[in-house]
Automatic annotation (TrEMBL):
Residues 1-20 are annotated as: Disordered. The lineage of its organism: Bacteria, Bacillati, Actinomycetota, Actinomycetes, Kitasatosporales. Residues 22-76 form the HTH cro/C1-type domain. This is HTH cro/C1-type domain-containing protein. SUPFAM superfamilies: lambda repressor-like DNA-binding domains. It holds the Pfam family HTH_31. One of its GO terms (molecular function) is DNA binding. InterPro entries: Cro/C1-type_HTH, Lambda_DNA-bd_dom_sf.
Length: 97
């Protein structure tokens, strides 16, 4: 699928997730994007788009990511995200606990 066929998020539309927190949570599980996507039932490309902030994760997908990574879903939500280092520290603390 080429980027011309992907439906980008609406310009200015808020993301449901903090992309860097989603990536850090996935990496902490030891899964690559393809493996995480398979567990979520989404494509690897969509997983990549979620992690890079090109597409917003549906709330159900965000909840499944949190469950797989054993973190609180609020840690992954954009509304809860602070500066990258604060969010990353929270994810690392949860995954390490």
């Amino acid at each position: 699928m080429t980027s011309a066929h992907r439906v980008p998020r609406k310009s200015g539309a808020p993301l449901h997730q903090a992309p860097h927190a989603v990536r850090l949570a996935r990496e902490a599980t030891g899964l690559n994007q393809r493996e995480m996507a398979a567990q979520l039932g989404i494509s690897r490309q969509l997983m990549n788009d979620i992690e890079n902030g090109h597409r917003s994760a549906q709330p159900a997908v965000l909840e499944r990511i949190a469950a797989i990574a054993s973190v609180d879903v609020d840690t992954l939500k954009a509304s809860k995200a602070g500066p990258m280092c604060v969010v990353c520290a929270a994810v690392i603390a949860e995954v390490s606990a």
